[in-house]
Structures are given as C-alpha cells and as structure tokens.
Amino acid sequence: MKNTVEIRWHGRGGQGAKTAALLLADVAFKTGCCVQGLPEYGPERMGAPITAFNRISEDKIRVHSNIYDPDYVVVVDETLLHSVHVTDGLKEDGAIIVNTAKSADEIRPLLRGYEGRVLTVDARHISEKTLGKNFPNTPMLAATAAVTGIMSRENFLKEMEASFAHKFAKKPEVIKGNMAALEMAYDKAEIEMAREAGSSEKKSGASSKEMKRSA
Amino acid sequence: MSKKNENVMKSRSIPERMSGNEAVSYAIRQVNPDVMPAFPITPSTEIPQMVSTFIANGEIDTEFIPVESEHSAMSAAIGAESAGARTMTATSSAGLALMWEELLLAASNRLPIALTLVNRTLSGPININCDHSDGMGARDTGWIQIYAENNQEAYDNYIQAFPIAEDPRVHLPIMICQDGFITSHAVENIELLEDEPVKAFVGDYEPEEFLLNPGKSVAVGPYSISAYAMEAKKAQEAAMERAGEVILEVAECFAQMSGRSYGFFEEYRTEDADYLMVIMGSAAGTAKAAVDMLREEGHKVGVLKLRVFRPFPEKEIAEAIKRSGCKAVAIMDRCESYNGCSGPLGSEIPAGLYRSKIMVDTVNYIYGLAGRDFTVDHVREIFAELEQVARGEKEAPNHKYIGLRE
After folding, report:
1. Considering the domain boundaries, does residue A212 fall inside one?
2. So what's the pLDDT on residue B6?
3. Is the separation of the CB atoms in A153 and A186 below 8 Å?
C-alpha cells in the first residue's frame, strides 16, 4: 500500500455512505493502519447528496480537510452522476466504483472525461438478494475494500463479521445476510478489476497499477 | 495540584479508534463526575447522549440533570458545584451563548466546573459547522480555555481539566474545546489510558468550602458593594495568572502517566524557521503536514500550535517567535471579531510581541468560518505570501480572508 490512500464517498442522505466510511475506517484500524473516517455534515435530509471521506495510512494522519484529489471515488447512488462532479480531482491511476446495474462502458460517458479505471457493482441487486432490502452501503463497502486492497479478503470478512456481531448484537439474524452481501460484492469487484485490467492491457499493453499489501 | 509527582501511576496505552465526542465521553466515564446537567446541541449532542448511556448501564453514578435550556444547564452546574459536587457539562455554539451570564457567575464564584465545548459557529447565517466564534465569544468570561488538535488531545486535555480547575491556587471553571465535526465526528486512531491511573490522576474532589457543609456555612454569589467588589475581581484575575503554572505542573504529571507531553503550545519545526504560522485546533494538523512538504522543498517554515488560550501565554508566545528568529508570522483566526481590523489572536499576539519589544511582521488571516474547509494548499498559499511580504515584494495584507469565494 502506498503511504496514504484517500477515498471519497458520494451518496444520498439515508443510504449509509457515512456509515460505510466509518466502517471502512474501523476495519482498516483493526489491520493496524492509521485511519480517518470523516463525514461531511450539513443540513441532513433524506436523499440530499452527501460526501464522506477516508484516509488510510501507515503513518499518523494529521490533515483534517476534505479530500479533493482522491485515489478512489465510491458512488453509492448512480443518479448522482448527473448532478455531482464525482470525478473532480480523482487520480487517473486510481479508480471510481459505481453502484449500478450498468456496465463500466455504459457509465464512462457520464464521468466527464475520466480516463482511469471504472468499476461497477450492482449493490442494489446484491443487497436485495442477500438482505431482501436495498442497503447499498454494505456491498459498496466490500467493493471498496477489494479495489483499494487495504486488506486481504479473508481479513476483511473476518473483521466485518466481528463488527456485525457487535453492531447487530440484538438482531443476530441479519448477520448472515450482511456477510453474504459483503462476499458477493467483494467477488464482483475482483471480477471487475480483472476485466478492467484485461481491457487496459488490450488498450495500452500496460498492466493496471494495483496496490498490494499483505495484511 | 495537591498530589506529588511521585504518586502518579503509569498507564498502559490502549490503541483504539473513535471520534472526538466518543473520546471525551470515554474520559468522562473514567472520571465519573458527580453531576452533569446538559441540554443537547449539535455537534456536542453525542456527549450527553453517551454519558447518559453509561449512567443507564450502571457504568458510572453521575447524576444527570436533563434541563430545558443551556441557561439552565449552567445554572444547575453552578448550583451543583457550589454544593460541593464535581460538575461538568457539554455544549456548542448558541448553547454556550445562552450560558453567557452564568459563565461569568461560575468564574467569579470560583467554581471549577468543566465544560466540554465542541466548537461551532454562532449565528448567523445559521450554520452547524466549526469555527471558534463560540469559544472566542466567551474569552473574557474568566474561564480557562484549552483547545485540541484531534481526538487524542481532546481526551488528554479533558483528563487534565479537573486537576487544573480544582487546584486551590486556581479554582476557576475550565473549557476543553475541540473542533465541531472536524474532530468531534471524525473517527481516528487514539491511545487511551487505563481507568485506574486516570481515576488516581484526577483524584477525589475535596473542595475547601462548599454550601452543603454543616457547621461551615458559606455564602455563594452575594451582593458585593463597590468597596469590596473590585478586590474580588482582582483575586479572580490573580487566579487566572496562577493557572498557567498549574497547567504546566498538571501537564508534567500527565506526561508521567501517559508519556504524552503538553505545554501552552507546541512548536513544530520552528527552530531556524524563516516563517511561522500560529494556529489553534484541528487546522494545526493540516498546517503541520503542509510544513513537512514545504520543508522538503527547501522552505524554512514552522507551526506554533496554541493549546492554552486562557490564560493567554502572551510572553511565552512572543519569546517562542523570537527564539525561532523568523522574519514573518501568519496569525490564524478561525473567528471574526467584527472590530474592523483583526481576529482575537490577530490582536492579542502582536500586543504581546510589542510588550516584549519584539518587532516582526505579522499578518492576520481569517479562515474556516462556519466550516469553510482549510487545506494544505491554503497553508502553502499563506507561507508564499509571507515570503513575499518579508522580501518587500508585497505589502502585508491586513486581516485577510482565506478560502473565500470570489
């Protein structure tokens, strides 16, 4: 992992982007990283566009500003692509992960010329299949963990299970569905990365720059 | 502080991650104060919420008084502290403003109440985000004020609050401040301390005089005629002056317990710096990160992060600026004074320099009002401007706003 990874989340109030950012900080902490989970607060309304931020680093994090040049952008609600400039400042060697049933090729034209990796995960479908409801943040969290490579699949799932056991102590029946959602989304993100690596090799002959870290 | 340094228990460090509000609530759980009257207000709401959960779970036996306003919260705090109970409360912004009259009563009655202030702007326009206008608005109320860069410092400062405020040389109320949302709601790494050493460090509250003390009656808050009132005010002022030495003594004991050192301020890469930035709160972290980048590029810059704002370490700041040998200083205010010329630090620091006969260019910048983001790029922009000013290429701007829409 490079020194500091910066992630910007875009969602709508009520979809859990903030919770996902805090959970990502949580699991990254458990693998020994320095973390920051920083939601941006304003007038909170259901459905309003919101952002949240993560910094994950091997060193102490001191910067307390929002993130303007993220390594990764996560879009929890694809309708935001029409109203929010989600790729602003996004590094070309980073990636954007979008919750959508569409393919990366269909999404790319909405990204205002972004030329880096575009990965799509149908978090709604995964959530409805595993949890019976649309909670897109859980699958998007897993996809983000997979794409950023901040920890291994095994470690991520182990730490999330412990986290859910704590969070859902009073309704343990939902843990299984949540874990299934994570696994499905993690796997889908890995397939997407492989597809993206294949297509970029075809284009340029170069392999994608993947962060590797043995967790 | 009554306890001797050799009695300080060393604590193991417990790595955790939590928000600034969680960190302060964790410290409150460890201190287990006698009384907490509070009225919730964003962004400090989580603190009374978490403390009442600790109480409901039987983890602490603090008497929580749900009141109908912050005016009542501080009134109840004054009553409880006068009665001899260790008392704390939490608030932000308009909540602190509504306490205003009582803030002065708490200080003048020499009641060592601890208030955790989660800094938020004052209206208007109405806004929930961070700046220091609430704390700065209370700067002349006679409260000690200590500011934090991050969750760690909010936690550490809170634990030191009671030994400072309750010291017989001080007996003044204390505000432990942290930046609303920026640190109060950000989850970051933290090193917690064990319960036992913290409890031993804070000790039991044994006031010399208090209301519910049979046979030793005292009057609290009586009318004072002009023949005596001025002496009372001078005595209060002298206590604030003495608070400085107590703050340093408590910090020394805290370092023995925790391994973390604190003073009036932190000097970050100020040695040999040509340009300095004086800054308070969470933005100091951003400034330090920017200083590291600028140093790598060959710029000799540093940060003086102010921790203790009241008592104001005027002389020490002036000496530190002199010691660095810098050519110009950026004085950063996250608050507007509406005096037409400078923010609070922008007038107090140059006054100290003048009284210490230190002549150095200063530029007062206003930043981060009502949650306006303050970035590494802003710090770079300010240092670049300071260099131009010092080289005589540019006239020193007066009272300049940073990050303003144009």
Report:
1. no
2. 62
3. yes
For domain B5-258, the CATH class is alpha beta
- pLDDT, tens digit, for every residue of A9-39? 999 998 999 999 999 999 999 989 999 999 8
Average pLDDT, integer, range B65-73:
98
The overall average pLDDT reported for chain A is 91
Preceding omega of B124 cis (within 30 degrees of 0): yes
> Which residues have CB under 8 Å from A28's CB, separation 6+?
A35, A54, A56, A150, A151
Are the Cβ atoms of B179 and A64 closer than 8 angstroms? Answer: yes
Contacts of A50 in chain B (CB under 8 A): none
Q: In whole angstroms, give the CA distance from residue A209 to residue B396.
A: 46
Does any CB of chain A come closer than 8 Å to the CB of residue B178? no
Token duo for residue B78: 């004054």
CA distances (Å), B357 to each of B256, B304, B326, in order?
36, 19, 15
Q: Distances from the Cα of B387 to the Cαs of A24, B257, B317, B326, B382, in angstroms? A: 41, 42, 21, 11, 9
Please tell me the distance in Å from A150's CA to the nearest CA on chain B.
16
What pLDDT score does A2 carry? Answer: 57
Domain count, chain A: 1
Contact call for B187 and A68, based on CB within 8 A = no
CB A49 within 8 A of CB A80: yes
Q: Evaluate whether residue A214 is within a structural domain.
A: no
Query: Residue B12 pLDDT more than 50?
Result: yes
CB-based contact A22:A36 (threshold 8 Å): no
Question: Does B293 contact A at CB distance below 8 Å?
Answer: no
* Neighboring chain B residues of A63 at a CB cutoff of 8 Å: 285-286, 289, 376
The closest alpha carbon to A63, from B265, B266, B186, B400, belongs to B186
Look up the CATH number of the domain holding residue A127: 3.40.920.10
Which CATH code, of 3.30.390.10, 3.10.129.10, 3.40.50.920, 3.20.20.80, is assigned to B265-401? Answer: 3.40.50.920
CB contact under 8 A, B285 and A64: yes
| B5-258 and B265-401: identical CATH topology | yes
The residue count of chain B comes to: 406
Q: How confident is the model at residue A200 (pLDDT cuts 50, 70, 90)?
A: confident
Residue B92 forms contact with A (CB below 8 Å): no
**Full domain range(s) for residue A130:** 4-203
Taking an 8 Å cut-off on Cβ atoms, the answer to whether A65 and B181 are in contact is: no
For residue B173, what are its two tokens? 């109320």
Are B375 and A68 a contacting pair at CB < 8 A?
yes
Please write the tens of the pLDDT for every residue from B20-42: 999 999 999 999 999 999 999 99
Task: List pLDDT tens digits, range B338-348.
Answer: 999 999 999 99
**In chain B, where the domains are located:** 5-258, 265-401
Verify whether the Cβ–Cβ distance A64 to B150 is below 8 Å. yes
Q: Which residue of B has its CA nearest to A67?
A: B375
Q: CB distance B286–A65 less than 8 Å? A: yes
Give A11→chain B minimum CA distance, Å: 18
Residues on chain B touching A162 (C-beta within 8 angstroms): none
pLDDT given at position A209: 43
Q: Is residue A210 part of a domain?
A: no
Tens digits of residue pLDDT in B365-388: 999 999 999 999 999 999 999 999
Q: Provide the token pair at B166.
A: 């309750």
Q: Is the pLDDT of residue A204 over 70?
A: no
Compute CA B146 distance to the chain's CA centroid, rounded to the nearest angstrom. Answer: 2
pLDDT at B3 exceeding the cut of 60: no
